[in-house]
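Me: Here is a favour to ask of a fellow structure person. Could you put it straight underneath, so I can go through it closely?

Assistant:
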Amino acid sequence: MKQNIDSKPAGRACPSCGTAGMSIFYEMEGAPVHSVLMLTTRDQALNYPKGDITLAFCKKCGFISNVAFNPNIHEYSAKYESTQAYSPTFNAFHQRLATSLIDRYDLHGKEIIEIGCGQGEFLTMLCQLGPNRGTGFDPAYDPVRGAEASEDLTFISDFYSEKYKSYQADFVCCKMTLEHIQQTADFVASVRRSIGNRPNTVVFFQVPNARYIFSDLAFWDVYYEHCSYFSPGSIAHLFRQNEFEVIDLWTDYYDQYLMIEAYPSNGATGKSLSQEDDLAQLNQEIDDFAGRLPGQISTWRQLFRDKRAAGRKIVLWGGGSKGVAFLTTIDLSLDDVAYAVDINPNKWGTFMAGKGQEIVGPGFLQTYRPDDVIIMNPIYHRDVQQDLAAMGLTPKLMTVEHV
């Protein structure tokens, strides 16, 4: 792993705005190319394919890209398990978001498309609350684990592209998908072309908030699948240059998620929103991330050395991408952390890509009785605390923001 690369040029044009000479500020070698595939043996997890992360920053539009990303080694299939639907906290957020969008855009009796629908939970919610009719696209959709198709709900296990432009909608939704796409301008342009001459179609995208990641030194939110990172300014710039008028920008979920709402336009992009003026702040946050992260990594490594020497048993709470990134970036072994807890029963008995920790259910802790629990997402601190208390367990709780 390398940081503080002294802003050397990446030698590539920005995939978002086309400007040449992005500046590299972070490098990591040997990151698992997938973090949430259900890997059924430890050997499979330990030997899962790896790739390099080389993050570069466009100083014109603020877009951040993994310029070492190779899209050809990905495996989006029914083995991909990224749902958060087992979390009451997340479900409450989803319900609030769906209700807000339905009220704001009068989504009643409308046609909805969701690009990257996962297992269809959010699309189902939009259609049931409207009521509306929906079509979801995702190569990882699994009819066994996913929402059930019906007369008003159609799921297509494929990547969305212009070959599906015959599917038209009043509302186009894309949540936590754009960050997986390297050629972002090409993709947003294809969405715009697919909409065609339908000026009243509302477009809603949700992505991880780069400002949160880099200002908080959240290295656990940097992983191979996420090749594209957006701030409010960079995502607005991307949509405006591809003939969308940006209506609103905001963050939610502990500032972890960034939302954009837009309408198709014919060249006129409207006045910029105040949130878009963030390039200078983002540039400073990138510099701080590159300069301060090595010290944070060293502190975490020393903490684990000390706990291991003291014979303390540690588990991670969260068997998804954050956990994989945390383990691989710090380079923790099974002797440091043997298990990761997850409330998603589909993951129990599978193994974490890269380091091979077994994913277990919360009930396992009643027998294992850990001394320390490190929570991968701070927003779940109260939920985890309540779950542990209900089992009569009182380990020391930390979040990834502890150090």
Q: What stands out?
A: The two ends are 19 Å apart (CA to CA). Residues 88-276 form a domain with the Rossmann fold fold (CATH 3.40.50.150). Residues 2-7 have pLDDT under 50 and may be disordered.
